Amino acid sequence: MPQMGESIAEGTLSKWLKKVGDEVKRDEPIFEISTDKVDAEIPAPAAGVLAEILVKEGETVEVQTVVARLETEKGAAVSKAEAAPGPAAAGPAPSAPSAAGKSGTKPTPASPGGPHREVTQPAGPARQQPPAPAIAASHSGNGNSFEDRVRTKSSPLVRKIAAEHGVNIASLQGTGVAGRVTKRDILGLIESGVPATATPAGVRFGPAGGHALPLPEAWPGDVVEPMSKMRALISEHMVASRHTSAHVTSFIEIDFTRVARIRAKKRAEFEEATGQKLTYMPFIIKAVTQALQAFPVINSSVAGTNIIYRKQINIGVAVALEWGLIVPVIKHADDLSLSGITRALNDLASRARAKKLSPEEVQEGTFTITNPGVFGSLMGTPIINQPQVAILGVGAIEKRPKILPGADGEDTIAIRTCAYFSISFDHRVIDGAIADQFLAFVKKTIETFPETGL
Fold this sequence. Notes:
Distance between the termini: 44 Å
Number of domains: 3
Strand content: 15-25%
CATH architecture of the largest domain: 2-Layer Sandwich
CATH topology of the largest domain: Chloramphenicol Acetyltransferase
Structural class: alpha+beta
Helix content: 10-25%
Oligomer: single chain
Number of helices: 10
């Protein structure tokens, strides 16, 4: 299991792309993983034959756990059944790699006929991020079974606090992923004054640590499926964001008629010169980067009673996937031309759908744009992507009848290309006047976009 950045402690092996006995080329995708940062295909570190699969689909294991073995001498691999027809036939096991040993993986007999190579990846660059939350999984045989997680359901710090106050963690249903009890949960329970001895089994916390309604039960005929790792983490992050930031949303209508004409006029020339499709989004990103420079508090983060004003302008753009939502980030977007933004946007979006993004490409965003308008939605109230303080929602860009002043001051009805934009902002640090001025700046920039801006 590769280390996809320092903040990632484990991953879920979501799909095997090869089966035992298949030949594998070096750098050919061999399995898919899902982490709290990104879904990705993992390439084979060497050419050979997939001799043994140690971790099944859907299992969650710690990073550096050996998940499979490659036979690097062609033709030497044999099936697991041939290598070990029974317990008595199993030869002495080689020493388990240290990374696998940490997670409790038992040594597996090697297939005869040649050396094996574990499918692992080198550690990614270090990132100063908080540790990723663990998530429940089916039994993996690597010390991370569902039963183990249900028994602990918390971090060592939370278990220490619970032990000091005589609280039974196993009796609680937390607000974290898969019901994990968070520090906020346990402190909220303690501060509420509920006696530890009186804590009922199955207590469930609300988002702010208070008690919530009991979990719903499945009825006959219902289908019950566990959340994917990505969906569970999205769920946790969205709930946490709503209870962290004081959400307020403002709306504005923007006339895209000028941009639509520029795009129609320059589209063929632009695509021939750059090889990139020209959509409305690069114009929007360009306008947003200029607005963030004019209103730096929109490009900030809250750290307790401090405000961190980000010097970098890194624009995250939400990409809808069949299995969830991901937000790749265009780094230093303010330094890019319209063609540069287009190239970066198209590249990140295509690799997001192909599961080719690295964790670094979905981190360090300072402002996010979500575009539900591509599905026909007129407007929305998006949830802030923590630790950012604002998010822009783009509604459907479509032709509408508008009343415009004529040359002599009379009113005329014209067909204009328009869209509703919304900004959800954190009222702890952003006042409504600033948010509305930001929207007005974006509106003016788009409506007066220079034809030479390409």
